[in-house]
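Appendix B. Chain record.
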Amino acid sequence: MPRDTCYYDGRCGLCRRTSRWLRRLDWLDRLDFVDLTLADPDELPVPPEAALRGMPMRTRDGRVLIGFPAVRRALTRTPLGLIPGACLYVPGVSWAGRRVYASVAARRSRDAACPVPMQSADGD
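Structure tokens predicted for this chain:
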């Protein structure tokens, strides 16, 4: 069965942590994760510059979501994220969520300067 693919920035601690949490929630194996910094740019669903502004996702039916809509969709694909993810579709919550996501994404750092602590490649 085709899965949704989340492309995350492997050079950002916040992005790695988010993808790690989504992996933990993905008991039904509905999501794939690709480090966009290691992927061939031609494989990305959006240009690399756009991919670095917000997590892109290619859904199993071929749609492309970026940023807040991608994270919201990823949550709804997981058992424990279904209810919180569904709440993110409420119009006022969705409006605020998009703005908060955009603000955090614009301020995130990459590499050693990332405000989220770096962790080893083997886990926590």
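Further analysis of this model is presented in Appendix C.
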